[in-house]
Amino acid sequence: MSESFTVSGLVATTPRHLVTQEGLPITSFRLASSKRRYDRSKKTWVDGETNWFTITSFRQLAINSASSVSKGDRILVCGKLKVRDWDNGERSGTSVEIEAESLGHDLVWGTTEFNRTVLVREDPEDDDSDASEVEAESQLVGAKSS
Amino acid sequence: MSESFTVSGLVATTPRHLVTQEGLPITSFRLASSKRRYDRSKKTWVDGETNWFTITSFRQLAINSASSVSKGDRILVCGKLKVRDWDNGERSGTSVEIEAESLGHDLVWGTTEFNRTVLVREDPEDDDSDASEVEAESQLVGAKSS
Amino acid sequence: MSESFTVSGLVATTPRHLVTQEGLPITSFRLASSKRRYDRSKKTWVDGETNWFTITSFRQLAINSASSVSKGDRILVCGKLKVRDWDNGERSGTSVEIEAESLGHDLVWGTTEFNRTVLVREDPEDDDSDASEVEAESQLVGAKSS
Amino acid sequence: MSESFTVSGLVATTPRHLVTQEGLPITSFRLASSKRRYDRSKKTWVDGETNWFTITSFRQLAINSASSVSKGDRILVCGKLKVRDWDNGERSGTSVEIEAESLGHDLVWGTTEFNRTVLVREDPEDDDSDASEVEAESQLVGAKSS
C-alpha cells in the first residue's frame, strides 16, 4: 500500500538547502495548500481551510529545487506522506512532511523554461535507505525544532 | 486540486459514534498505517515508521462504520486529508485527519459478508457544507482535546 | 513515482477465480465507476460518464475476493494502474487494468461482517515479479480476448 | 469519490494547441510513463512496462502548457482519469486520458525558470461543464481519430 500523496500549493518559505557531511543534498520548505469549495448559499467559490506541509527533497531533486524554487511560487508535489511526532526535550509536536518524489512549477499559474540536466535518473527508489539519509533528516528536523 | 488520499491500516481505537443535536451522525477512530520497505543490506522487508490518522465519517457512512468496524480490523480508507493546528487554551498541537469518502474492510486480511442497505447514495459531495457539519466537527475535536 | 490509483464503483461482472498451474490464485472482474458532478444550469447533481476497469488480484487477496465479492456490490479498490495495448492476432485494443493492492466493500452503501483470516501478511510488494505471475496474467488476458 | 490521478513521465509528442470557435484554449499531447522495479534475480532495477496517456488541458493551463512544454520534456501531471470507448464509424478503440488540473516540469530531471503570470486563478472546478468544452473535446478526439 503506497501512501503517495499529491498536492499543489504556494511555497511559503525560502527553500533551505544543505549538504550533509556524508554528501547528501537536502532541500526543504513549507507549502500552503488551500482547496476551494462551492458555497451554494452564497453562490460563490470560497477558500477552504489551508493544509500546511513541510516538503523535503534529496539528491538531484534537492539540487534542482534549490536553484529553481522560490518563496511565492506555485508548485505541484508528489511524494510520500510522513506524519511524525517529535519531542526535542523542551517541546513536542506533530510534523506533517512530504518526501518529494517529483515536483515542479504549476503551469496553471505561469510559464517555465526547462533546462534538462539529467539524462539518466539516479535511483529514485533506493529503498535500502542508507543510514546517512535518515540521520540527515534527523539533523534537519533537529535544526527546525531548535 | 483535490487532496484525496488513500491509506490502508489497522483500526487502533474503538470507533466513537455520536449524533449531533442537528441530527448529523459522526463516527471517528484512530488508524495506524505502516509501510514496509526492502532493506537490501539485511535482504529482508522491514516495517517502516507508522503514520497515525484520525478517520472521521459522516451520515450513512458513519452509521455503517459504527456497526461494522471494530478495533483491530484492517481497513482501506479514501478521503480528504486535513492538517489542522488546534489550541484548546491549555494545550495545542497538530491533528491529521482524513474525512472519509469511502471506507471498507481490506480483503487482503480476511473475508466479509456485505449487506447492501443503501440503494441510492445520498449526496456525497454536498459542498455547501452546512454549518451544522462544521460545528459538529468542532464539538468532536473539542471533545477529543479536552 | 508510484502510479497508485484508488477508485470506488460497482462490480459489474461475476468475479472469475482461477489458480494457475504454478499455484498462483487470481481473481478478476469488471468495475464501473461514475463520478457525479453538479450541473449548475439544472441545479442538480448528474451522473458523469463511467470509467470501466478490469480489477485483478493475486494470492490471498484473490482468494478472499472470490469468496466475498459479488456482482452488484459496491467496492473501493487501490492498486496500480496498467494501460496495455493488446493484439491477439484477430483483434486488438487497449485494456485498462488495476492490479489491486487492497480492496473492500464500501461502507457508504451497506454494512459488513469481517472475518480476519490473515495474521501476518505475505509479501505484497514482491517486486521481482516472478515470471509465473506475468504468464498467468497473459493466460487470463488471452482467455478474455478469445 | 474523486478519481484524481498523478503521473510523471516523458512528453512523447509535440503538444497540439487549438482554440475552439467558442474561444476555449485546449492543449494536448501523449505522455509515456514507466515505472522501474527491482529485479531481485538480476539484482538490478529494470524498466517496467509503459503506460501511455493523452494529457489534455484547458483554459490558462492550456495556454501556458503550449508555450512551456516540448516533446522530450519530463513532467508531472495531476488530473482526472477518463477511460473512454470511441467509435468513429470506421474504427473503434479505448482512449485513456488525463484531464489535467495541474502540471509542471519535473525538477528531478532539470531546472526551471518560472514566470508567474496568473495572480488570481480562474475557476478550476467549473463543474457545470459548459457544453462548449465537451464539444471541443469531441472535436479534438475526432481530429485525432480521423
Write out key terms for the chains shown.
alpha+beta, 5-stranded mixed beta barrel, homotetramer, disordered C terminus, 146 residues
Cα end-to-end separation of chain A: 34 Å
Q: Work out the helicity level of chain A.
A: 10-25%
Main sheet: strand order of chain A: 1-3-4-6-5
What pattern of helices and strands is seen along the backbone of chain A?
A: EEEEHEEEH
So how many helices of chain A?
2
Mean pLDDT of chain A: 82
Beta content of chain A comes to: over 45%
Class computed from helices, strands and strand pairing of chain A? alpha+beta
Q: Tell me which protein chains meet in the greatest interface and how many residues each side has.
A: A-D, 44 and 44 residues
Oligomer: homotetramer
Largest sheet of chain A: 5 strands, mixed, barrel
- Which spans of chain A of ≥5 residues are poorly predicted at pLDDT below 50? 124-146
How would you describe the shape of chain A? globular
- Strand tally of chain A, please? 7
Radius of gyration of chain A: 17 Å
Describe the secondary structure blueprint for this structure.
The structure is a homotetramer of 146-residue chains.
Chain A: E1 4-11, E2 16-19, E3 25-39, E4 44-58, H1 59-68, E5 74-87, E6 92-105, E7 110-116, H2 131-145
Parallel strand pairs in A: 4-6
Antiparallel strand pairs in A: 1-3, 1-5, 2-3, 3-4, 5-6
Structure description:
4 copies of one chain form a homotetramer. Chain A has a 5-stranded mixed β-barrel. Chain A is globular. Chain A has helices at residues 59-68, 131-145, and strands at residues 4-11, 16-19, 25-39, 44-58, 74-87, 92-105, 110-116. In chain A, β3 and β4 form a beta hairpin. Chain A has 2 helices and 7 strands, in the order ββββαβββα. The first copy, chain A, is an alpha+beta fold. At the B-D interface, loops of B face loops of D.
